[in-house]
Specification:
The chain is of the alpha/beta class. It has one domain: Glycosidases (TIM Barrel, Alpha-Beta Barrel). It has 14 helices and 17 strands. An eight-stranded parallel beta barrel has the order 1-4-7-8-9-11-14-15, surrounded by six helices. It has a three-stranded mixed β-sheet with strand order 10-12-13. Strands 2-3 form a two-stranded antiparallel sheet. Strand 5 and strand 6 form a beta hairpin. Helix 2 runs parallel beside helix 4, helix 5 crosses helix 7 and helix 11 crosses helix 12. This is B-glycosidase. It comes from Sphingomonas parva. One of its GO terms (molecular function) is hydrolase activity, acting on glycosyl bonds.
Length: 416
Amino acid sequence: MNGRQALFPTFFLSGFECSTFLWKDAGRRDLCAETQHQLHADEDYRLLRSLGIAVAREGIPWPMVDRRGRYCFGCIDAFLDAQRRHDILPIWDLCHYGYPDDLDPFGDDFAPRFAAYARAAAEYVTARAHHGPAFFTPMNEITFFGYMAGEWGWAAPFGRDRETRRRLTLAMCKADIAAVKAIREVVPDARMIHIDPLILVVPPRDRPDLADEAWRETYDDAFFAFDVIGGRRHPEAGGAPDVLDIVGFNNYSFGQMEYRPEGPHAALEPGDPRIRPLCDLIEEGWKRYGRPTIVAETSGLKGGRPDWLNDVVSESLAAVNRGVDLHGICLFPAVDMPDWHNGEWLHNGIADLERLPDGSLMRTPYPPYVEALRRWQHRLNRVTELDAVPYDSPVNLADIVAAAKAVAPRPDDDWH
């Protein structure tokens, strides 16, 4: 079947939690260490290979490798080795909520410092890459980071008002744009994936006067970072469509919310008639920018993981049937992660984690989730296990379009 090649060798992607924020009551966090991903890098990447997943989001911990402009990238060598051994293509996440202790995100040196680090990181990983092209996410979830660190006070710089959130979001956008340009100076064909959540905010039933505020958060604030990076707002920052490049939308169950003036907002309960089909949200986001698109993170919780996967894939295929240029769905995370607030395991990964008496964390794939993934791989004519050369035949988007037409899913406002 003729058709365009997708961006990636497999339609299903995955990734590993890699936050390095300075947390409100716990100091510097390193979620990669908390999940022992570095210690289990070979096992974690072998899991992806066995599942027919050839692409993984992986983090470089900026606060740990950047010492006042001097870099030590040795902490990611285990990832590079495992990627090479198991033929997994990385999407390198350069700032997952954390920045070095000596930096002020509102300072004039923030963007140049991030750009210099991004350039050095790109040189390091591409010199050791087993396959191209190189993919990067410079600043992860800029809009969400603006809220959590600029208005809700969860992480540094611990802002607690809208103005600080807006300033932080714009500062991150400027750093992101500078990083894209620095990376392309050394890796001209590098691709950039910019990622933020898809959300819907509605007013409380008894507060219709808050409808404008809810609309603003859904269609103005939520897309602010993409707009700046894509050159639609603040043109002095240097954004442009080719800087935005690839758009990644994250989707979780708490993404559709009832507005709360003081925030965070309250997630809508299943069955709430105000919930909209995920298909609609993907289509609206894609039409806004017209860029290649992925679902960059999604996962259910505990026993709901297979049903969540079924819903998200169905809604994604419905979006394909509406013409959305969708290149992949990222099941995130590959292995479980702790709740940021209380440390309890979320049971949202393809594999759960269990602490053994010696302190190590055993990885155990969750069978119903794996079985649901296998069913969708078969329906989409995708591999279920990587062959010896997984990069010789990228996904043919015509296969995805044909499968979407054959499945013919109906957008469902009860996907929640």
